[in-house]
Amino acid sequence: MDYLKKNNFNVIHLSKLIDILQRKEDIPPKTVVITIDDGYKSTMRAYKILKKYRFPFTVFLYMEGVGRYPDYLTQKQIEILKKDPFVEFGNHSYSHRRFAKILKKMDLKSYKTLIVEDTLKAERRLKKLLGYVPKVYAFPYGEYTRPMIQVLKEMGYEALFTQDPQNVSKDTPLYLIHRQPIVGSWAKMKHFKDVLNTEVLPVVKHSPPIGYLIQNPPEIWAEVKNIHNYKNCGIYISELGWIKAEKKNNRLFINLEKPLKRWKNRIGVTCWNVKTKRKSTFFWSVYNREGK
């Protein structure tokens, strides 16, 4: 947090970012939004530090846990946070299940019903604890499906948040807002600085689309706006690592000869912007019904 302060980063409320995205406005340089998932008791330690710097932040609450289980925020602690105008809240589901994985073995109608019921259950507790129901949602484990996005959108949610490690631009869709995880080995200062200085690669179309693979091995490519501005491009797949990308017209691609084996893979495209001399990235998640 000291680095953000000393280097004049502008830490804003999540609600302000959503407003900027809704208006399709350019995000001001050096803008940062801070979110915390789950609502563990350690949130209060973070609160003490963030309050010192007067940095706003949002807590996405796992509603079965908070106010009930010993590792999570108590109702009294939530009351303290609720009174602070620098703190906002979001929904992180009631049960914190792997909703994308559930779809492997459940019919679509039952799946949508499950999402609705879990979300309504979370909303009832949010209303009880906060006095209102925030209409922002962070996917548990950062895992999402098209039907889940559709259901939450129909339930009135303004913005949905992933854990795909990418920054945000005015073209970021409100129902797939990326976040950079700063946890574990990724919480080191070198990675933190790298994240803050990374741009969004302007991918206008990609394959495979988000969600479950239609074919395996999939066609993997990304069409990039103004591709002439980029060099040294690579494509990342969780189970394979980084692979040098081939280029044809405005499309970056790799050819896979063997099927993907994992149940979940993140796919990323990274290039070097020759004009700004900065790394640019774009990430999304896919799932494999046959994977483990």
Output the structural class: alpha/beta
Annotation field: number of helices: 8
- Quote the CATH topology of the largest domain: TIM Barrel
CATH C-level of the largest domain: Alpha Beta
**Helix and strand pattern:** HEHEEHEHEHHEHEHEEEEEEEEEE
Q: Choose one word for the global shape.
A: globular
Q: How would a crystallographer describe the biggest sheet?
A: 6 strands, mixed
CATH superfamily of the largest domain: Glycoside hydrolase/deacetylase
Helix content range = 25-40%
Fraction in beta strands: 25-35%
How many DSSP E strands?
Answer: 17
Question: How many angstroms separate the termini?
Answer: 38 Å
Average pLDDT, rounded to a whole number, is 97
- Please give the domain count: 2
- Rounded to an integer in angstroms, the radius of gyration calculated over CA atoms is 20 Å
The unreliable regions are none
Please tell me the CATH architecture of the largest domain by its name: Alpha-Beta Barrel
